[in-house]
Amino acid sequence: MDRPAISDYGFLSDCRSGALVGRDGSVDWWCPDRFDSPAVFGRILDDAAGRWRLAPVGTGRVERAYLPDTLVLRTVHHTPEGSVAVTDALAAEPGARAHQLGQNSPAVLLRVVEGLSGRVPMRLDLTPRPEYGLLTPYLRKLPDGTVRAEAGPVALALRGGVPLHVERDRVRADFAVSAGDRLGFDLAYAPVYGGIPARLDPVDALADTVLAWQAFRESHRYQGRHAGLVRHSATVLQGLTYTRSGAVAAALTTSLPERLGGDRNYDYRYSWLRDFAMTLHALWVAACPDEASRLFAWASRSIGQLGDDPVPVLFGLEGERGLAEHEITHLRGYADSRPVRLGNDAWRQRQLDVPGEVVSAVWRLHEYLGERLDDELRETVVGLTEQVAATWRLPDRGMWETREEEHHYLSSKALCWVTMRLAVELAPQLGDRADPVRWRAVRDEIRATVLERGWNERIGAYTGAFGSDELDASALYLPVVGFLPATDPRMRATVAAVERELATPDGLVRRWSTDPGGFLLCSFWLVQCLVLAGERERAEALFTRVAGHANDVGLLPEQVDPVTGGMLGNFPQALSHIGLISAAWELTEPGGD
């Protein structure tokens, strides 16, 4: 397999699902029903798992960019015969605008070809493989020229402006495009039983989709530093949002590896409560309060009434709780990185920082929007606070979701402190069950314990877990959540140790010493720590270097290989774009320009 780099991919979204399209014109990932549904194109994980390529027959120089304020991607191919543009999008519902985007998306992939100069030979090659490549569909050409593909639960309908030729397991078309020509193609999905794929005019639907995205962005105004980067990152976050519920997927993909050829390959197509508060903050910063409110409603419904069990770490996009993990052995994996996993067993873990993230989100809802807490939110805050009061002394899996033994992770304890601190502040809103006197005592005990046991005198820094000699970039989160000021001498020493031991020459921060790549969220935390410590010039330079690891269309991965500069991990990564937004705002806030 001639494997494209992760950075070769552009991201399409209809706020129901998403697709990845490469610089070579091949759509190599699409789960059409919703982000976490089975893929009909999975070439990114295995060459035999299906794709849709639409590109010139010959090779040449490629330029591409999103149309302004959209996730509609225009790729220009310059060949010896001439130049041609292919514009790709997942269709919005006709007439949808701004916050309607994604409510009733038709699940149609649009591709429009425009001749720019010369006469360019083109080729279309469609090989749908539903159920992650397990199925080869039956292909039928209908009298109107439509090709229908059916297998298992999936029906697809391909329509195009040129004759389509059906072979046993694929659809092909060879044609030429001259300057001024415009041809549209659309591939529509529907459930095979009871569903009829939508029929759209691809040229008109593409224009309408552009208007839908631009109306969304026009309704949001960000006035801080790095406005162009923040606006684009907010658009990417919106593209990862499952609008029907408000949930934000952590990433579009499953099993793109943290290390090429390694086995840390997980399914990130779900929504984590840890990411929840960070996402809310980023959306508020980017002036997207409506999306923040919908996300909050999703989290509240997903959590439900609290019992004695810890609050789950992550949920499905409609609040599903059981996300049992299993391996699909027929796929080779990206760069032969096995296993390929569906589901994520982190949902079973105890992660003590999660209540702090949720309570901080409630605090922001009250503080930023001035909203009074309803009965459900009061019960949620009180229940989470009591859970933390009863369990904060226990070990857990930590924010990096280790699958080894539990430890007393520093960041988990600090977030337990955040829970108690904010619960005390919210106590006047919480009714008769609030117990601020006891909560204040627990808060102070947690803080004293973290300050004493989290500091490693021999290392001269706060380490990842109590009693550990291992530095961990999660310590950079302490100033971000207000546990310690960045100017505190021990915090300064910790930041210096992280920069010395975990940072790459260009400033990317690994989570721990053996982490295979620079973790972008942690790198943006370092930017925030430098700002909070008064080192704005260094912070600004670091922000520029870290943000510069985006690909040519502004998409960020989870990690970056410090040697090759190649992207690693699931893509595009919501937390990386959240980190960019938050760091840009930190650079703006303290008397920013």
What does this structure look like?
The chain has helices at residues 130-133, 202-218, 227-239, 273-285, 289-303, 354-369, 375-391, 410-426, 436-453, 477-480, 489-501, 520-532, 536-547, 574-588; strands at 9-13, 18-22, 26-30, 51-56, 61-66, 73-79, 82-90, 108-127, 138-141, 147-151, 154-160, 165-166, 171-178, 182-191, 241-242, 247-248, 271-272, 314-315, 326-327, 341-342, 455-456, 461-462, 518-519, 559-560, 567-568. The protein has 2 domains: 6-217, Distorted Sandwich (Beta-galactosidase, Chain A, domain 5), CATH 2.70.98; 220-588, Glycosyltransferase, CATH 1.50.10. Helix 12 (520-532) runs antiparallel to helix 13. Strand 6 (73-79) and strand 7 form a beta hairpin. The protein starts with 8 loop residues before the first strand and ends in a 5-residue tail after the last helix. The protein is 32% helix and 20% strand. It is α+β, with helices and mostly antiparallel strands and 593 residues long. Strands 1, 2, 3, 4, 5, 6, 7, 8, 9, 10, 11, 12, 13 and 14 form a 14-stranded antiparallel beta sheet that branches. It has a 3-stranded antiparallel beta sheet with strand order 23-24-25. The chain is built from 14 helices and 25 strands.
- The average pLDDT score comes to 94
Structural class category? alpha+beta
Number of helices: 14
Strand content: 15-25%
Distance between the terminal alpha carbons, to the nearest Å? 49 Å
Apparent shape: globular
**Would you report the number of β strands?**
25
Q: How many structural domains in the coordinates?
A: 2
Multimeric state? single chain
GO molecular function: trehalase activity
Domain GH15-like: 226-530, 539-585
InterPro entries: 6-hairpin_glycosidase_sf, 6hp_glycosidase-like_sf, GH15-like, Trehalase-like_N
Domain Trehalase-like N-terminal: 5-172
